[in-house]
User: Which sequence fits this backbone?
């Protein structure tokens, strides 16, 4: 029996690109996750002290939403120039737009010191964070995916995605350490600022690494063969509107569930279950550690069985585990609460592992940065709405989580259906294509639109 061909080798320049993308993505998600966790814990007291505890938490989570609404701006701006001048040149700027505001938040006086100016400045800094992250996701993912062989894009495409859980581990770990080493009063007064200030060290180190980032292979070939698009957004909306709409629907589940199981669950545990905020933090850290090898494995699964198929089944797993999550939280038992959060977050991480490759293969190189940014960041508007809307549903139901759980399940099933339709459209197009299926992004996009 003949032995299977070994996987294609990865060039040293591509390996450096993978490393630089991973570290940059980790730093970006550290900043963004740190804000969300801290907002759920103390921002209501520090920046909105005149409100009740529940309303203060709601207002603090609303500032989290502002960052999500700013992300489409960053996605469109950086997507346009990323498709025009390349992936590498913009990624340093996206990191600065995330890192500098995060450091400044650590120095920002609270409401008790400067009054209403404190939440206003906080909102402005949050907008800058959102713009930076809006350009980061597609840039880091595409710099990697476009630099490795097509047969291994599932696996290597999962590596920048690891920046999400790794950044979450660092941010949650620092917050947890600060809460353990200080009293509640000390943490609320000043200790919460320490992780924000330490981010300055991570910013300098990550910038040093990212300056060595090489331009992606696909974009380099595009410049030599076809040339870049002058107006990639117009081309995207005119020629690739069908896969764009379906991709937006497929992305919705991640945008919603990632925020429900993050700041909303943490706030729910503290406000309505009257348990320690460390439960939500531990429930974030454990799956973040477990999911690292799992995401890499699912990247390999995507290379073998198909990225779209892997994505659909991973999304469906979240629908199965939503009601058990809230049922286990209701037990009030530490083990079962952490187990429920862990299982649900692992299901969310499963679809996230192959998400960037799934989205990238739908669009040609000349509009890919714009397309992936558009899908991810417009979807982030749903993510931004999720914390305040979900928490408002808890307030309206006096802490009962079941209507919220039903809403999550419906959104997940809708996303799975959109992703399945994408696969069906491409499969039908393949039947009408003499040469059969192709893994080339331009060909997939053309056939999906034609179907």
Assistant:
């Amino acid at each position: 029996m003949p032995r299977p061909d070994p996987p294609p080798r990865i060039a040293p320049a591509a390996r450096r690109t993978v490393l630089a993308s991973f570290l940059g993505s980790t730093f970006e998600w550290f900043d963004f996750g740190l804000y969300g966790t801290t907002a759920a814990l103390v921002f209501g007291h520090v920046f909105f002290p005149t409100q009740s505890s529940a309303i203060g938490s709601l207002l603090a989570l609303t500032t989290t939403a502002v960052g999500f609404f700013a992300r489409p701006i960053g996605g469109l701006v950086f997507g346009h120039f990323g498709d025009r001048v390349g992936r590498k040149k913009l990624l340093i700027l996206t990191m600065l737009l995330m890192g500098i505001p995060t450091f400044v938040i650590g120095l920002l006086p609270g409401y008790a010191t400067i009054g209403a100016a404190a939440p206003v400045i906080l909102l402005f800094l949050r907008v800058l964070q959102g713009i930076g992250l809006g350009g980061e996701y597609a840039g880091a993912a595409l710099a990697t995916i476009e630099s490795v062989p097509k047969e291994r894009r599932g696996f290597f495409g999962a590596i920048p995605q690891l920046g999400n859980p790794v950044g979450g581990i660092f941010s949650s770990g620092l917050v947890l350490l600060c809460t353990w080493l200080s009293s509640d009063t000390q943490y609320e007064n000043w200790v919460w600022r320490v992780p924000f200030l330490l981010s300055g060290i991570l910013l300098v180190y990550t910038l040093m690494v990212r300056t060595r980032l090489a331009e992606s292979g696909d974009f380099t070939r595009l410049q030599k063969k076809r040339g870049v698009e002058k107006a990639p957004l117009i081309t995207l909306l005119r020629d690739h509107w069908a896969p764009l709409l379906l991709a937006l629907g497929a992305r919705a589940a991640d945008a919603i569930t990632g925020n429900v199981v993050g700041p909303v669950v943490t706030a729910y545990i503290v406000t309505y279950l009257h348990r320690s905020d460390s439960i939500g933090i531990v429930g974030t850290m454990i799956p973040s550690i477990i999911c690292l090898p799992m995401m890499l494995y699912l990247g390999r699964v995507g290379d073998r069985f198909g990225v779209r198929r892997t994505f659909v089944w991973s999304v469906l797993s979240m629908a199965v585990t939503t009601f058990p999550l809230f049922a286990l939280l209701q037990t009030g038992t530490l083990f079962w609460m952490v187990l429920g959060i862990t299982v649900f977050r692992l299901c969310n991480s499963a679809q996230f592992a192959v998400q960037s490759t799934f989205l990238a293969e739908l669009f040609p190189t000349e509009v890919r940065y714009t397309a992936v940014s558009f899908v991810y960041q417009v979807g982030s508007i749903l993510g931004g709405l999720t914390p305040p809307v979900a928490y408002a549903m808890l307030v309206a139901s006096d802490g009962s989580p079941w209507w919220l759980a039903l809403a999550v399940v419906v959104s997940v099933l809708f996303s799975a259906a959109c992703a399945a339709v994408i696969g069906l459209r491409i499969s039908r197009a393949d039947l009408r294509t003499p040469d059969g299926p192709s893994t080339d992004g331009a060909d997939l996009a053309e056939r999906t639109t034609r179907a």
